[in-house]
């Protein structure tokens, strides 16, 4: 039988698998020790529900204060962007069924609240399927979740557009498809992924941008824009929605996707090898991005080895876990990934 000796193997060498198992065992043991030391960590469901309650309540309070004119819009946006970063972490943990696993009503209620607070993302129930596949095939060409966050793409206007506005990117990508059948298929896919929450979310954003661009152009021409009572009410609602929920999520999502797409390697990663799937990015100058994605660049690599720990426990294990990861050869602060389109190999990808 004629076989191609150059074909990549999908089976990890025993020594490398042993190394992965050792990393997982050490971090798991450390997190278990923390659970014994701090008994409160045993109340995982209560912690998750409390973080959700505080985050959602905080968004309602800041939104109310903004509407009443008691705080400026920028402050509401910043606070809610921080709160939605907590909610994103909760959703990620819920996808792995880390809260209320045996209580489906509570579990699905938390999932729904995550979707309402972050309406620009596909439903968490749909994301669960994509995310489980991401863990199995992280960095390979079937990893749709990585592609959504721009991993593997060359840096340029197209990647920045996708980071900032995934909906417009999806539509533009569909319009440039080679055939009409493909254009229609991709357009329907974008609409399906965003229905119904995302369509309302992006609709508010585009109405907001369009209206304020229109009034600005008219002001340059010395004209005044007059609206009907219904149109005026619509703009007030849209303005409030943008400040309270849309703009905070655009900031949070940009920061998360920027960090996530660069800590994940893509395109030449050996399947199911967490030693190659991610790196740790924890340089001090990344803090403006890390702030709005709950230190994702520093801690997400831990999750690829130990899935069962919730987000707050990953923060607690990070100092110990970083030493274990470094000893195992996991990369830290490999900023050359920007030039390599997130390839694991240090060789430049082909044009």
User: Can you tell me the residue ranges where pLDDT is under 50 for at least 5 consecutive residues?
Assistant: 1-8
Strand content: under 5%
Order of helices and strands, N to C? HHHHHHHHHHHHHHH
- Largest pleated sheet: none
Note the total helix count: 15
Overall geometry comes to globular
How many strand segments?
A: 0
Oligomerization state: single chain
Distance separating the two termini: 34 Å
Mean pLDDT: 93
Estimated radius of gyration? 22 Å
Name the helicity range: 55-70%
Number of domains: 1
Computed structural class: mainly alpha
Domain Fatty acid desaturase: 71-334
Keywords: Membrane, Transmembrane, Transmembrane helix
GO biological process, one term: lipid metabolic process
Pfam families: FA_desaturase (PF00487)
In short:
The chain has 351 residues and is mainly alpha-helical.
What does this structure look like?
- The two termini are 34 Å apart.
- This protein has one domain (14-149, 196-336).
- It is built from 15 helices and no strands.
- It has helices at residues 14-37, 44-67, 73-95, 104-117, 124-136, 144-148, 157-164, 166-175, 180-194, 197-220, 229-263, 274-277, 287-291, 296-305, 311-327.
- 66% of the residues lie in helices and 0% in strands.
- Helix 1 packs across helix 15.
- The chain has 351 residues and is mostly helical.
- This is Fatty acid desaturase domain-containing protein.
- Keywords: Membrane, Transmembrane, Transmembrane helix.
- One of its GO terms (biological process) is lipid metabolic process.
- Residues 71-334 form the Fatty acid desaturase domain.
